[in-house]
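One-letter codes give the sequence; each number marks local geometry. A record appears below:


***
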Amino acid sequence: MSWEKIKYGPIGEAVEANLPGSEGDPIGIFGALLSIYSAGINGKVYMGQSEQESNRPAAVWSILVGHSADAAKGDALRAAVGALGPNLRDFYHECRRSGITSGAALVTTVAGRIQDGANLDEPDGRVFILEEEWADVLRAASRDKNYSSRLRQAWDGKPIENRTTKAHVGVPRPLLGFHAHITPGEWGAYLSRNDALGGSYNRMLPLYVQRSKMLHTRSRGNFTPSSALEDAYQWACEKPRTISMTPRADDVLFEIRTEIAEEVKDMDPAQSVFLSRGAEHIARIAMAYTACEKKTKISVAAVKAAYELVRYSMSSLEKITTEVANLNVPRGMGRPVTPLDQFVRNILERAGGEILHTGLARHLAQRGIRGPQVRELMSSYPWIDVQVREARVPGPKPVHYVIKDEKAAETPASPPSLSVVPSPRKKASARPQPRKAAAKKATQKKKETS
């Protein structure tokens, strides 16, 4: 998918203007700039007929995924920041936060921003989380069960809160932006499948990036702030803006939703869960595009351009998943990850093409899949037959998973077994006599001779 199809409006123009001075991927620069701008208008721009009727946040969350050696993720971010005008740059520096590793810290951070502006006529509760080393955050956050759930609630625009016996801190409507960087290996090591199936990270757009070119040091960093983007930011902040779809754009979005719903039926749940929020991502991206143009009606062109970005994100996810499966993960980060469908097939083939639910569940627990998620996953594979059989004893009916394809169900040839051949026994020799007995016998024989 080409950059030409993805770029749109003032954000795309700003990327084009600053691309000559950056080694970053244009899609990476675009994703970072979109996240910053959408976080800036969060709480200023609303989707729907009125501000009261819509709770949809405007923020678009993105993740740049690429290898440290050739992704130039930091270069992409620097080019995005270089495109910010004075007011948008002030927002970026004042509202940027990093190193949040727990749900409690997230709530406290957002609430603190509101309290800092309590004396202002319009308190500013906007927060932009920037994690350039997101793997470090995920490693620390893995010990806190509330980290991913608070992120979900904030993206949805739902209240987030901390309750303890001593205090209660809450934010009724969080205004949270998010942008992060990670490598494919770290993605596989720290983003658990359980969180993916729970929807924690399908609220973010993963964008696979690579270095666009090599530049001499003196040619890097010559960036130009975008006046069009600055004007659009000021327009959005002047007063609350309500943005809505044109009838035709709404029809196009419905067609896309229908297409996505059909497509996810045959996908691995770990990937389909990302696409399942595709329509919501498209609506948010199109809303940001429209605000960039200082308009209040979302056009068909904006919806289609947003769809191209979501499509690129989905192709990025497939590429990341493939790389993780084939990657030699560094020591301490676990072994290479077998794709889930192949992992399941290997288990069934080793079992002769059929296995009980309880037996399979023990294996899938290694991937963070437990309880009803096991049955849901097996039902999603067209090559597996889920059979509920009669119980031999009183109790629940056993569930069996059977490979439908007989050829695939054939048990793989077993490796040649090693037969143990005992070594030939040596002929038992007479038991040697103790030294004292032998010496006594020799002395006695000498006396008889003499």
Notes: Residues 328-335, 408-423 have pLDDT under 50 and may be disordered.
